[in-house]
Amino acid sequence: MLLTVENLTKDYTTRFGGRKVSALRGVSLCVAEGEFVAIMGESGSGKTTLLTLLAALEKPTGGHILLDGEDLSALPNRTLSAFRRDRLGFVFQDCNLLDTLSLRENIVFPLVLAGKSRAEMESRLLPLSGRLGITPLLEKFPYEVSGGERQRAAAARALITEPALLLADEPTGALDSGSAAELLGMLDDCSRDGQTIVMVTHSLDAASHASRVLFLRDGLIEDEICRGAQSRTTFYPALAARQTLLRQKGGAHLA
Q1: Which domain holds residue 169?
Q2: Helices 118-132, 103-113: crossing angle, 10 deg rounding
Q3: Are 99 and 145 in contact (CB under 8 A)?
Q4: For the segment 146-198, what is each residue's pLDDT rounded down to a tens digit?
């Protein structure tokens, strides 16, 4: 397995009163190389916390995260930035491009930090920008292009380091339906090419692109559903029905 999460817990202490809040309460999961996994859940379910821990932006309270057998929680702080840059890619709802840099400069920025040569930057950039349909836009600045084009540039920046794991946090949340469909199609292509993807989303349409969907509730994995050989057309209603059933079950439990 490329990614293994073992009994992951994360506790926070509230600022006032010192009350402990458990955001994750023992999450275990595995993601195979080349798999596209979506994580769904209501607000407060723990999905954003889980993604933050997978991104090595915070340390877990307990448990382990193994990427290619390497324990992220055991990495010293001085090496974490380089690890994230070289091994992980990130696509956020807010594309986080730098307005003072062109799209070209934004995309190759991780390679600049890694000390790569200009020749290597170009050899990686041009095939990627061509695949994403943004080569004619490379000299433009983020404020000169559409939201969907900015998000494709952000995806190119995430992929240019050839990361072992691509993490996507609500990547279509700020896009119109057409731009969202383009971005999800790009993620489909990346998955078919062998890229491992873990995506947090509220969108059933986005989740229906995944090969497997995990449902979180109250810091635990409540259920999962696999797409298998189903087309998106048949997987979407099955996914919607499972989500409705889990919501009903949760409401009954609270009652």
Answers
A1: 3-89+165-254
A2: 130
A3: no
A4: 988 998 999 999 999 999 999 999 988 888 888 888 889 889 999 999 999 99
- What are 200's two structure tokens? 């947090």
Half-sphere exposure for 54 (CA within 13 Å, toward CB)? 32
38: closest CA among 234, 226, 247? 226
Is 175 among the domain residues?
A: yes
Residues 6 or more apart in contact with residue 176 via CB below 8 angstroms: 147, 148
Whether residue 122 lies inside any domain: the answer is no
What are the CB-based long-range contacts (under 8 Å, 24+) for 81-84?
83/56, 84/55, 84/56, 84/57
CATH number at residue 181: 3.40.50.300
Nearest Cα to 101, choosing from 116, 112, 114, 92?
112
Q: From the CB of residue 117, how many other CB atoms can be counted at a distance below 10 Å?
A: 9
Question: How many C-beta atoms surround the C-beta of residue 146 within 10 A?
Answer: 13
254, 80 contact by CB (below 8 A): no
Structure tokens at 209: 């692109």
In a domain, 119, yes or no: no
Total domains, the chain: 1
Report d(CA 74, CA 71) in Å as an integer: 5
State the pTM of this model.
Answer: 0.92
- Tokens 């000169």 correspond to 144
Question: CB–CB of 42/24 below 8 Å?
Answer: no
The answer as to whether 40 is a domain residue is: yes
Q: 73 with 64: CB under 8 angstroms?
A: yes
Spatial distance between the Cα atoms of 48 and 44, rounded to a whole number of angstroms: 8
